[in-house]
Amino acid sequence: MNIHEYQAKELLAKYGVPVPAGHAAMSVDEAVAAAGKLPGPLWVVKSQIHAGGRGKGKFKELGPDAKGGVRLAHSVDEVRAHAEEMLGKTLVTIQTGPDGKQVQRLYITDGVDIAKEFYLALLVDRETGRIAIVASTEGGMDIEKVAHDTPDKIETFTIDPATGLMPHHGRAVAAALGLTGDLAKQATRVLAKLYDAFVGTDASQIEINPLAITDQQQLMVLDAKIGFDSNAAFRHPETEQLRDLTEEEPMEIEASKHDLAYIKLDGNIGCMVNGAGLAMATMDIIKLEGGEPANFLDVGGGASKEKVTAAFKIILSDASVKGILVNIFGGIMKCDIIAEGIVAAAREVSLNDPLVVRLEGTNVAEGKAILANSGLPIISADDLGDAARKIVAEVKQVEMA
User: Fold this and answer.
1) Known binder of ligand: residue 231?
2) What cellular component terms from Gene Ontology apply here (predicted)?
3) In a domain, 8, yes or no
4) What does 20-81 look like in DSSP terms, one character per residue?
């Protein structure tokens, strides 16, 4: 789960992380009132969407020469003008895709005179099973571009879970950022507070870009992005309240209601698989055969008939889906249960798209019999490669018709 920048900063402030004063605004009048609570004479008006690159983004409704989603204001009247232009408009950035996201919230913050910008992040390193610290002197830029063009300017350190954050981690980060003296001490303190926030909230990522040195020689977090481990959500009901459903895919929201792991993709072949690894392999083989998966969907190892039916409906609710591949290896998940769910969902939604099913494992004979006797135009496959070839061929025929 992700949250907005203003929510991230409010959370980090509770852990003592230095952030500029600011207030969220849902309307133009609220934006003006927020500016009035800040000393000025410089304010920053920031669009709040779950995507990076806001400052370089463009609003669909405005001309190509219009300013982006992060703007400076030198008066309260200018704050009002920016708010009127930004609220309700669709902001397109490198992370939103061409459709963009509608700006429904703004964040009005104190302007800060910046002497130098850095990048600092904490994230879960799945390769080592540890929390990793990523630091770079190239703050304020797309970290992906930095990693591609100048990887030597990014340094990574991992934290041993047995000891937690140690003083040498702070010294290493300060050295990586080229900080000495009091600024090095500040970097150590900021890192410690970020680490406390990371562990205390069960975060999966805290990204600070930029971490800035102000003209007053103070380190300050000017932008923050936080993502949380959804598996730990039950421990943090207060964090769940920060969720903004308008920033999420409707199908992903529906999937979460049924405890389904679903991510919408850009292809046209819907996938329903049990097991994350098998789902990844299924998508890879679809691409190998020249197709494009429309989603990642893992129904889990012990799904019920109702859960399978819900998964099938979610796939079919995507208008871009032109065909469906079901790939199930039945262990705890029995093939006949999967088959019953497929048949029930297909009948309920009047399935018109090609459907290829590959079943293997527990009760596979019973499952195949249920599909064969359903009276539905279901195409059976012998193995995963056969299934991928068949669904890609079927979808191509649909698109050519």
Assistant:
1) no
2) cytosol; succinate-CoA ligase complex
3) no
4) --EEEESSHHHHHHHHHTS--S-EEEEE--S-S-TTT-EETTS-TTS--SEEEESSHHHHHH
Q: Which residues pair with 155 in a beta bridge?
A: 135
Q: Does any domain span residue 199?
A: yes
> Do 90 and 134 share a domain, yes or no?
no
Lowest mean pLDDT among 37-51, 86-100, 298-312, 315-329: 298-312
Q: Distance between CA atoms of 145 and 134, rounded to whole angstroms?
A: 15
Per-residue HEC secondary structure of 254-313 comes to HHHHCCCEEEECCCCEEEEECCHHHHHHHHHHHHHCCCCECEEEECCCCCCHHHHHHHHH
53 is in an annotated binding site: yes
Which residues are tagged catalytic?
Answer: 119, 207
**Which amino acid, residue 87?**
L
Helix (H, G, I), strand (E, B) or coil at 373: coil
Question: Do residues 171 and 145 make contact, with C-beta atoms less than 8 angstroms apart?
Answer: no
Q: Which of the pair, 253 or 137, is modelled with greater confidence?
A: 137
For the chain, the domain total comes to: 3
Residues 6+ apart with CB under 8 A from 107: 4, 5, 6, 22, 23, 24, 25, 45, 46, 48
Close Cβ partners of 114 (under 8 Å, ≥ 6 residues apart):
210, 212, 213, 214, 215, 222
Q: 337 versus 227: which is more confidently predicted?
A: 227
Q: Match 């649909």 to its residue by tokens.
A: 398
Asked if residue 298 has pLDDT above 80, the reply is yes
DSSP letter, residue 89: P
